[in-house]
Design a protein that fits this description.
four-stranded parallel sheet; binds iron/sulfur cluster; three-stranded parallel sheet; 2 domains; mainly alpha
Length: 521
């Protein structure tokens, strides 16, 4: 007879989840939660318990639950634990609570819940906020510092990439490097490119008045803002996969745009959110808004190649600085390459490429930007594509590199994406824009994904030759379409390592000789 409802029903103010005495803990937060009355407690109320996050297929949400099947790893479980934290009845130690920390630890911060959950629960943001406070009183693990500050390490490595690659790629040395950084032994540490994209860019324009920051005044007077585009040199494509950014330059210039690149070292701070280093993340965003103020004011579009970086500008930025007019403008000026081509280059006749492709959207791309423009560009290029993996690749930034999380990262990849890539016919393209997704595919299959910029570059070159003029598709059937791109990249890394090895051997030999001479005196 449904007691409490039909029989002897509760009073209107009785047995309520919140009740008239609801007075949650309202801590000061880094994120401002503008859509939740500025309150983390209100944000955690979004979960109404329907449990869509407990489904087993389709959508992005929630990869960790799909593997562990534990409620604490579902979006609902995490939201509920955070709600209990703000209630302060069961969970009394707030930011220091280990159960909340443990539950959030396996969140890949893919933002799947933000788009898939009917009420828009945003666990990735709550996780970043929680972890930031948790580490105010707990020691941050060494690998969090290593992964979170990858832009700083990459910048240092760009002076001696060959030498750094020797320590991360050679047997034994690479094992020591993995041990020191808490990286799973099964993982390969990505190699640094011998020349960063920005070094290439500077060299390209040396002596000619580069359209970088120093040349902006000249640009502004010469062209209208509509013909200029700023290409964001993110840490991953700048330091690890510069060919992607070079391909984007080629495409944008072919479309008639003058490309500029910020000269200053700028980083959106994406890896910092996963380890809760929100003070540094905010300071990097403030630096960006200061440095790019002229572009923001001129309304110059900014093309970002890495979806997770684009998501920082479109999502985190306005949550951290909801009242900053520059943040609002910047978030609207940032485009992925496909979005830019769809919105600002409609007149550009996209090059055709008669190929089939398997595409995989980065979770932040699917959750924040959506795949509409990406798919439209591929369609306009005449590419027949399939997207068999609506979920996460499992890598999610540093998540899949951490030794404690390798197995779950692989298991998530094996749900859909990795088997689909392995099954893809050898002449299909594998297209993925996210650095993490590309790494997961490269490390767990024998294929390598290309960025949309590289696919467009391939089409622009009429699919007949590689960047260095090597015929692409005359290759034997066991060769993949991406081989020409990948072989060149790998060869350049090997050459730089050999040079660094010779230099180290030369220095060591010289030192030994001097020592021997000094001893014999
Ligand atoms: S961000 Fe992704 S992994 Fe984290 S709770 Fe949401 S859907 Fe799950």
């Amino acid at each position: 007879m449904n007691p409490g409802k039909v029989i002897e029903p509760y009073r209107l103010d009785e047995n309520l989840r919140l009740g008239p005495t609801y007075d949650p803990w309202q801590p000061a937060t880094h994120f401002k939660f503008p859509d939740d009355h500025g309150s983390l407690a209100s944000a955690t109320l979004r979960c109404v318990g329907v449990g869509k996050c407990r489904r087993n297929e389709g959508g992005v949400m929630c990869p960790s639950f799909r593997v562990t099947r534990e409620e604490e790893h579902s979006t609902r479980g995490r939201a509920h634990l955070l709600w209990e934290m703000t209630q302060g009845e069961v969970i009394k130690d707030h930011w220091q609570n280990e159960a909340v920390k443990e539950s959030l630890d396996l969140c890949l911060a893919c933002k799947g819940c933000k788009s898939d959950c009917p009420t828009g629960v945003d666990v990735a943001t709550y996780k970043a906020e929680f972890v930031a406070h948790y580490y105010e009183t707990n020691r941050r693990p060494l690998n969090a510092l290593a992964f979170g500050n990858i832009d700083l390490w990459a910048r240092a490595a760009s002076h001696v990439p060959g030498l750094v690659n020797l320590t991360t790629q050679l047997p034994f040395l690479r094992d020591l490097a993995k041990l020191a950084a808490g990286i799973a032994v099964q993982r390969r540490i990505p190699a640094f490119a011998p020349q960063t994209f920005k070094q290439w860019w500077e060299k390209r324009w040396r002596g000619t008045g580069s359209p970088t920051r120093s040349g902006r005044a000249k640009l502004d007077s010469r062209r209208d803002a509509g013909a200029t585009v700023l290409l964001w040199a993110d840490t991953f494509n700048n330091h690890f996969l510069p060919d992607t950014a070079k391909a984007a330059v080629e495409v944008l210039e072919a479309a008639g745009f003058e490309v500029t690149v910020p000269r200053a070292h700028l980083c959106c701070g994406r890896p910092l959110y996963d380890v809760g280093m929100l003070d540094r993340a905010k300071s990097l965003l403030l630096d960006i808004m200061d440095e790019l103020l002229p572009e923001i004011e001129a309304g110059i579009p900014i093309v970002v190649l890495e979806p997770s970086c684009a998501a920082v500008f479109r999502d985190e930025l306005t949550n951290l600085f909801p009242k900053d007019e520059r943040a609002r403008a910047l978030s609207q000026q940032v485009f992925l390459l496909s979005e830019f081509l769809e919105k600002h280059a409609k007149a550009f006749s996209l090059p055709k490429l008669a190929r089939k492709a398997l595409i995989h959207g980065h979770c932040h791309h699917k959750a924040i930007m959506k795949m509409t423009a990406e798919e439209a560009v591929l369609r306009r290029m005449g590419i027949d594509f399939t997207a068999p993996a609506p979920g996460c690749c499992g890598m999610a930034g540093a998540f899949g590199f951490e030794k404690e999380k390798y197995e779950i990262s692989k298991a998530i990849g094996e749900l859909e994406l990795l088997p689909a890539v392995r099954k893809a016919p050898t002449d299909w393209l594998i297209v993925a824009d996210g650095f993490s997704c590309r790494e997961q595919i490269a490390q767990e299959t024998d294929r390598q994904a290309l960025h949309l910029a590289e696919v467009l570059q391939m089409a622009l070159r009429e699919a007949t030759e590689s960047p260095e003029g090597i015929p692409l598709f005359e290759a034997a059937p066991q060769h993949y379409p991406e081989d020409a791109w990948v072989r060149l990249r790998e060869a350049a890394i090997q050459t730089s390592m050999k040079r660094a090895g010779l230099a180290v051997a030369g220095i060591a030999g010289g030192a030994a000789l001097l020592w021997a001479l000094a001893r014999n005196r």
